[in-house]
Write a structure and sequence with these properties.
8 strands; binds zinc ion
Length: about 210
């Protein structure tokens, strides 16, 4: 079954049908955003096929989608070859409805490359309220200081905070706050709408 549209696919190994695959290819582009002066890149607006794929991976435990999502991350990585790049995934939350740590899974698929190194150094310093239903301001307050470092940072190299969906950017800012400002940026699969919009009210809106 196709993980994006639910149609019957021709083979069991085909996890995304041809039509959804081509739509996903067409809708992808490397886009740049800024939140409080922090730069991040993302590949999609959080809707349509990509949203279904993320939801199926995260909430329905379709782990066979991890390599596909890792492929998107790869396309979003900077092309620069000099210096080390550390991918820093946002840790899953205790109160998340996600059934497994899909971000670590995606990052794990990338760990084979020699250029990018996985650095799972972030941890929640306290429990945070679920972000769904909170205003933008409340989300920022909710997450300020909520992430901490769980170990030492390498002395050189660039850090890329990795998350699936960015909406208000509160999680990204909380992560960036504990990493070197001049060497930290963000990478997200998709950009969701602000909480006032439709996306924020849904169960799968993460921030
Ligand atoms: Zn499909």
């Amino acid at each position: 079954m196709c993980s994006a549209c639910g149609c019957e696919t021709s083979g069991a190994e085909e996890i995304i049908c041809r039509s959804c695959r081509s739509s996903l290819e067409q809708n992808f582009s490397v886009k740049t955003g800024f939140i409080s002066g922090r730069k991040f890149v993302y590949g999609y607006d959080y809707c349509g096929e990509i949203r279904q794929v993320i939801v199926n991976c995260k909430f329905n435990c379709r782990k066979e989608l991890l390599p596909f999502l890792a492929g998107i991350v790869e396309k979003l990585m900077p092309n620069r070859m000099d210096g080390k790049v550390y991918l820093v995934p946002v840790p899953s939350r205790d109160n998340s409805e996600a059934r497994f740590d899909h971000l670590a899974g995606i990052a794990g698929c990338l760990a084979g490359g020699n250029r990018t190194q996985l650095l799972p150094v972030l941890n929640w310093s306290r429990s945070v309220r679920r972000q769904v239903g909170l205003s933008r301001r409340d989300r920022l307050v909710n997450l300020t200081g909520a992430l901490c470092l769980d170990g030492p940072l390498p002395a050189s190299g660039d850090f890329i905070v990795f998350d699936d969906v960015i909406t208000t950017g509160a999680t990204f800012l909380a992560a960036a706050a504990v990493l070197p400002p001049d060497r930290t940026s963000g990478l997200m699969l998709a950009h969701g709408e602000d909480p006032a919009g439709v996306e924020g009210a849904s169960r799968d809106a993460k921030e």
